[in-house]
Amino acid sequence: MLTNYVYKLHPNQTQDSKMSNWVDMLRSHFNWCLNDRITHYSQQFIQGNYCDIRTQSEACPLTSCVSKNGATGEPWKIGKTDKEGKVKNPRRNPGDIQITALPELKAARPWFAGIDSTVLQQNVKRLDTAYKNFFDGRGFPKFKNRSNFTSFTFMMGVKIQGSKIYLPKLGWMRFYNSRPIPNGFTVKACTVRKRQNGWYVSVRIEDKSIPDYTTKHLKDVVKVIGCDMGLTKLVHLSDGTQIEPTFRTPNWHIGRWRG
């Protein structure tokens, strides 16, 4: 079972400034990756799948400077071998190409090295999700501005102890523990989001011992039952069924509790 708990964060001044800088850099990185894919797709559409930009002629895919997948970087996996020991170089998808290029990004722009690596990877996967939604019939991915890009996601290294949460490269941070995490649940990921009244964290937790609730499609629903809270019974259903409360109803006598 997967569920999300949302808490309000209480970062110090240094952490608040660092998270704001992260959002600005990640927005710039997202827009760069989107522009990179659009530019390369346009070059492919005009010049062909494999083409040398300088001569505008067909070229070998191993030496072509235009990636068929629509992203800057090495389109082939290097050093991979199959079961027989032969070298194989399968093609990368655009997301894998841009994730693999993250070390080069950090080397060229050292300030990106201050951001957690899983946060940068999730930033690229966020663009992958936008493209997936587009191919499913939704709108084309749009460039982000400050109003519609306000969050980033951690996938590893998150710890929670009481009313404190540890976020990689941000350190321990206080939060308002309004809803304790039940026993048996483990932290899978967390998303930090900036709102008008401060920072919030959405913690994704999982308990594998609890089965997930599976929803039915509307066409598979053959019966609808209404329910209402009762006074002597916990719940009354429209089909006549009544559900008893699981706790013992107290007996009151002259203002005193009697078990």
What is the topological layout?
Layout: E1 2-10, H1 13-47, E2 51-52, E3 57-58, E4 80-81, E5 87-88, H2 94-100, H3 102-108, H4 117-135, E6 151-154, E7 159-161, E8 164-167, E9 171-176, E10 186-195, E11 198-206, E12 227-229, E13 235-237, E14 242-243, E15 251-253, E16 256-258
Antiparallel strand pairs: 1-9, 1-11, 2-3, 4-5, 6-10, 7-8, 8-9, 10-11, 12-13, 13-14, 15-16
Descriptive labels:
259 residues, alpha+beta, seven-stranded antiparallel sheet, 4 helices, 16 strands, disordered C terminus
Structural write-up:
Helix content is 26%, strand content 26%. The protein is built from four helices and 16 strands. The protein has a seven-stranded antiparallel beta sheet. Strands 12-13-14 form a three-stranded antiparallel beta sheet, with no helix packed on it. A hairpin with a 5-residue loop joins strand 4 and strand 5. The C terminus is likely disordered.
What is shown here, in short?
The protein is α+β, with helices and mostly antiparallel strands and about 260 residues long.
Quick one: biggest sheet? Answer: 7 strands, antiparallel
- Gyration radius (Cα, Å) is 26 Å
Could you report the average pLDDT, rounded to the nearest whole number?
81
User: Strand sequence of the main sheet, in spatial order?
Assistant: 6-10-11-1-9-8-7
- Regions with little confidence, pLDDT below 50 for 5+ residues: 61-69, 251-259
Give the strand content.
25-35%
Query: What is the global morphology?
Result: globular
The number of helical elements comes to 4
Helix content: 25-40%
Instruction: Indicate the structural class.
Output: alpha+beta
Output the helix-strand order: EHEEEEHHHEEEEEEEEEEE
The overall strand count is 16
* N/C terminus separation: 37 Å
